[in-house]
Here is the input.
Amino acid sequence: MTAPTPSAGPVAGGAPRRDILDRLDALRGTDLPVRGGRTMAYVYDSGLDGAEELAAAAQARFAGVNGLDMTAFPSVVALENAVVERAARLLGGGPDTAGTFTSGGTESCLLAVLTARERARRTRGVTAPELVLPTTVHAAFHKAAALFGLRTVSVPVDPVTYRVRPEDIAAAITPETALVVVSAPSYAHGVIDPVAEVAAEAGRRGVLCHVDACIGGWYLGHLRYADGLPQPSAFDLSVPGVTSLSVDLHKYGYTAKGASVLLFRDAELRRHGWFAHASWPGYPVVNATLQGTKSAGPLAAAWAVLEHIGTDGYTELSRRVHGATASLAAGIAALDGLRVLGRPEASLLAVASEDPALDVFVVADEIRADGWYLQPQPAFDGSPANLHLTVTAAVAGEETVRLLLADLAKAVERARALGPATVDPALAEAAAGLDPDALGPEEVGLALSLAGIGADGALPERMAPVLAVLQALPPRLTERLLPEVVGRLYRPEAGGPARAAESGPEEG
Here is the structure.
């Protein structure tokens, strides 16, 4: 019997191509939109015609290329060198700068911490490495500390500016400090830490200093080319004492997901984070990232989009984003009951309430009903509950900004009429006495049910009550419950439309 061609229909229980794509479209219909600027977190839209199609075409050409072995696929080396060189030129690198293309900001941050730990062990004899960081740094650094066995030393930030104070970082550095981290900007508030001053303090003590510019580096780097606009604070590798920097291309580089660059001051520093193994009967292994096998597709897509938009294109996109951010900040400040936290220098805004009768979590629910997603951020360490806005080029039109501000004003009025989401004080008091490490399934189930989450894991349509409960709980208890929430979503029996269609073997 002749084997059918791939387009001939289902084979041995397989589904037709059209049916598969229709099912994928149905699944996407349940998601937030990734184009148009209405989802103001997680996604980045340049608004440029053809950029997404170019990225998809480039990715398809390299989807099967394995970045594990550059000797077998030299194209990987050529593309990575080109992308890293471009990032280094933009972000203060010199002739000795070395870099690595990674799968995203989290992997870049993990590798920065791993590299610092290994260098501290090998060159300074540090046996109990510490990671000194402001309370505003991205969670990826706490993840790195947990994975790689470092003790975190969290330093509070100024309660008005939300920037860390250099003298506080200096006081936290010890002989065991492997790495100091600062943000440019911080995700939560969009402010740039005093990089030059902190890097100088670290350098005086022989400690590495990493700048997390994952979200802002590409935007801020190109903003410096825009004539007539305020220059961002110094933050890149040109700053004395800065030894590494991470920048994501799938954010303000507007490339396909899975694209970040980790830059080091030199190759000698970078090598401390590489893994090599020859003590087995297989092929010699050298890994520059946490991954072994990895598709070269995201790398090719990133290179293609960077080449296509170019320096002038990114500068213009940054100019547009700057204008939209300023307009939104001014418009939000004019709304009764809202204020922008800190003085953002980048394209991120944190919007809090000044009115006890106005709950920003309820505002988030209300404006989501109008087709916008503003990301809720719970209160923590002096930072009040707020809404996060990532402003991308797709937002940077007068009509889009006007519409967002108008819808936000209406959402504020509806939220004020509804009143804040409340938490039973007795519940909060009882929860404060729980030991997160001793919770059994019944206690977890009860706690989640009080937050409005049932055994099936389905999240309620309105999230303000859930967020209010989680915010009222001690952080360690919240961290114990969050994996339970997500774990209930990831169940094989919950596959829904994505589950493979039931069918018997093809006749023939």
User: Anything to note?
Assistant: The domain at 319-418 is CATH 3.90.1150.10 (Aspartate Aminotransferase, domain 1). Confidence is low (pLDDT under 50) at residues 1-10, 502-508.
